[in-house]
Amino acid sequence: MKQIGILSALGAGFKDLGKVYGSAIAVMCSVVASISLVIQICSVKWLNVYLRNDIRDLYFDLIPFSIVATSLLLVIIVTVAIAGCFIPLIRLRKIDPTKIINKGQVK
Q1: Rounded CA gap, 48 and 46, in Å?
Q2: pTM more than 0.70
Q3: Cα–Cα distance between 73 and 91 in angstroms, integer?
Q4: Which of 52, 71, 53 minimizes the C-alpha distance to 61?
């Protein structure tokens, strides 16, 4: 919060703050997306192996890996990351930068 207050006090506008925190959005999205993709692939493979062992005559995957589900998951990740970064910026834009710097956080 203090960083936003300092940048605002130095004259940074909403676009400037968006550029600074846009890189944070990109890093956050890429890390979360890669972790969720690995978890999705591993869980689908594990479930298929479990179901094949449970049902002996099964020769195909019951739960296929889906590009549509993966794309939907990535869209949700990006949407939440953008909202999580820009909603506080919009809220803090209305507050005096000196209050943000002095308090460190705004309730």
Answers
A1: 5
A2: no
A3: 27
A4: 52
The answer to whether residues 5 and 98 touch, using CB atoms and an 8 Å cutoff, is: yes
Per-residue pLDDT tens over the stretch 6-27:
777 777 777 887 777 778 778 8
Of 33, 18, 36, whose CA–CA distance to 82 is shortest?
18
Q: Give 36: exposed, middle or buried? Use CB within 10 Å, 0-12, 13-18, 19+.
A: middle
Residue 2: is its pLDDT beyond 70? no
What is d(CA 89, CA 17) in angstroms, rounded to the nearest whole number?
A: 8
From the DSSP assignment, how many helices (H) and strands (E) are in the chain?
4, 0
